[in-house]
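Question: Send over one sample?
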Amino acid sequence: MIDITAFNRNLKNGHIENCYLFCGSDEFLIKENIRKLIKRVVKSDFIDLNYAKFDGSSLEDFDTVINACETLPFMSDKKVVLIYRASFMGEEKGCKSKLSGEFKKIHDYLKNIPEHCVLIFYYLFKSKRDKPGRRIYSLDKDICVVRADKIKGYQLENKVQEFFQLRGKNIKKIDLRVFCNLMEGNNLSAIENEVEKLCCYTYGRDIKRKDIQEMFLKNSEEDIFDVVNAISNKNLKDALHLLNELIYSGAKINYILVMIERQFSILFKIKLLLENGKQKTEIMKLLNIRSQYRYNIMVQQSKKFTLKQLKKSIQLCLNTEKDMKSFSLNEKTELELLLINTIA
């Protein structure tokens, strides 16, 4: 099994297999790389004659696919046959495809694909938590299985930069990195939608850091605010539920941790300033809190902790961050333990 990076390297070097199975949760990424493969294999002048595709979710007879594969290409060395959304490549349980029961027959055929044909399947995971099953691993011995995991780091930045360039938008490198850090974990289709929103929001001008913060940080801060609110109410069940919602929506673990620590720090400062006799207006100005409603809620939150408890919570956040950077730990588990310890 190879990843998208290895697939692109092989494609660039002209190393093309006769059969591929792309699998993953990011359909945009899968489709994009299949398009690259088809473009490399079949000339655009003869694409209509040498390219056949089938909907794997409604395909009733694999013989139709075999016939397409066996038919010789026209005025070309190769032809491509694509079966998209090949649900029968998943595990037997819950699979509604009529071809699920013919998996052995399909597997046997894949071992002897004609030289003139490039047969491509793609199997879409139901959620980002899914992994390749037994069937996919059994195919990996005989065909090229490409795991289309979400791209990140410089690869993600370069791809997102393309999205902005296609829309004629300029964004500084450092601001691009901030945007990508907030988006990491989402699929490319969702990220492109967010790029479109940001471009519409900044119509007629270049994108600034402030635009990204106003559009994307505000919602994330509200979610973190809710997590800390559940902690202040000693409601562990709600706190863990909200944490999981944040993670599954694509928020990065490190970002969540930093924002929780920041929220506890604000509560500590509010409580300290109140105990030192500072007034509401002065505190809001010192801590740059613009909303009176938010200030009032945070005051109520701060009253549910002692200064000692808030200091302990901040230290727990810092210790968790240090441990995650120093050791190979399950980051989600560490965050859950943090919430448990702050409530205890």
